[in-house]
Amino acid sequence: MKTGFLAALGIAVAWALLAIAQIWIQPVSAQVFLKLSITAGILIAIIFVVTLAVREYFTEKKMRDNGFIDG
Asked: Which of 10, 18, 49, 67 is the most exposed, fewest CB within 10 Å of its CB?
């Protein structure tokens, strides 16, 4: 769970640094920057969804093992 959030945070920080660099020195073309931005957004969304789903699964499994919910 923590790994997923750290990965998403790393992608977000890397994208933010690229965005700042793109404003000032334009290391990549506008078309490539757009593609990288869309890719970063999709990756962050997928990582968050998978991380939350895994966390929910393990939380529910733990509650079932402890007898708090029926299953």
From this structure: 67
